[in-house]
Each structure stands twice: as structure tokens, then as C-alpha cells.
Amino acid sequence: MLIAALLAVIFMLNLPFGYWRAGQEKFSRGWFLAVHLPVPVIVLLRVTFGFSWTALPFTVLAFFLGQYGGGLLRSTLPSKVPIK
Fold it and tell me: What is the pTM of this model?
């Protein structure tokens, strides 16, 4: 049960970073930061909750799904909301 909570937190943490990444030029400074800034937080969470290396593939998957989901949000949400 605790692993599911960790994976949900990692996924939710990466949604805004994926949203940000999708608006940056690929391999630019902003893109690099959007991909790498959440990594220390994720490592800290994994170590704090005492998960072994066997949890690593699942945390990496949650990371990439969050990044991908954030990118999807950016591509599907309207860029400007019309003001009436």
C-alpha cells in the first residue's frame, strides 16, 4: 500500500514538470531543468520511506508517466481562456 502512495506522489509531482517541459525547446536549459529538478525529491522520498532498489523500476515508470501526462495536459488544454 505504501508503494502505491509513493508512486502516486511521484506521478503527481511530475505532472507540472511535464507540463513545463512540453513548452520548452528540446534539450534547452528549461527542458533540462524540467526533467531533472524532481529527481532529488524522488530519491529523497524513496530513501526516506525505506524502499529498496527493487522499487526503482516502478518509481522510474511513475516519473516518466507523470512527465508524459503533463505534456499531454499542455497539448490538450487551451493555451488561452477567452474572457467575455
Answer: 0.87
